[in-house]
Amino acid sequence: MTEKNVTVKLIKSRIGATERQKQTILALGLRRLHQEVTLPANPAVLGMIKKVERWLEVK
Q: What is the structure's pLDDT at 48?
């Protein structure tokens, strides 16, 4: 069974985000602008992406 993955890229600065949104972005492993991270496409990760999709580009 192959596991699905999703790649996310931080495309916008976290300035102006609430503290909870900033913590969610950090929890996804995104520290710097234009950084890309590949994560497993499980419900927890997809929910976190949905909460901060304004700052992300999803591939």
A: 98
